[in-house]
Design brief:
Layout: E1 2-4, E2 7-10, H1 16-29, E3 50-54, E4 57-60, E5 62-63, E6 70-72, E7 85-88, H2 104-118, E8 128-134, E9 140-143, E10 154-160, E11 163-167, E12 178-182, E13 187-190, E14 199-204, E15 218-224
Antiparallel strand pairs: 1-2, 2-13, 3-8, 4-7, 5-6, 8-15, 9-14, 10-13, 10-15, 11-12, 11-14
The structure holds N-(carboxycarbonyl)-S-(naphthalen-2-ylmethyl)-L-cysteine and fe (iii) ion.
Length: 228
Amino acid sequence: ARVAPGAVHVPDWLDADAQRELLAACRQWALPPAGLRTVRTPGGGTMTARQVCLGWHWGPVRRCPNCGRAVRDNPGCPGRHWYPYGYARTAVDGDGAPVKPFPAWLGELGRRAAVAALGPQEPYAYDIALINFYDGDARMGMHRDSDERSDAPVVSLSLGDTCVFRFGNTETRARPYTDVELRSGDLFVFGGPSRLAFHGVPRVYGRTAPTELGLSGRLNITLRVSGL
Ligand code: MD3
Ligand code: FE
């Protein structure tokens, strides 16, 4: 179903086997080194959802004013996270280990997902996965994802517990927005004008995951093109 121009929700896109396989991969990626981490937000707060990055690490990055590249991966600013956020090849606020590689099969999954939702597409080279794990009362505030330098659609896959996904507008974090329930196996693709819309996860419904999946909590996998 089309939620807004370029924003398409495909319920139940991953069958039970595909969900199990993707979950098994997520469990490996979550292991150290460079596994599941607690993310500090630019304002000095802490995200309640924990995250794993593949391909590029998202966090505070100091960039060379001349060439624009990440120049030092550990900003060394205990308590003061004033560095601009962005992507770098090594972990910053995790354990400092290099980020895990982005596997080719995940890029193929991303292209298939974009085509399934939006129709024929350029063969985008997906190179980032951000995997968010929600347990307990974890949520995600309204935000915009603008650290990528590509207009490729973002692909989102959900596993485990059902959540309320709030899809907003491109102007403000406030209304108008549309609330959509995302369930295990659902695909959501954000392209075109929806790519820069505010969005968040105000609520996760505990113990709603399919029992046979064996996941307590919710995982969301987003696939992106860095353009970097
Ligand atoms: C719309 N994740 O990782 S998925 C995120 O469920 C993020 O974990 C949420 O917001 C989650 O940044 C929402 C849906 C989503 C993901 C990325 C988007 C919607 C998006 C990027 C641009 C526009
Ligand atoms: Fe986001």
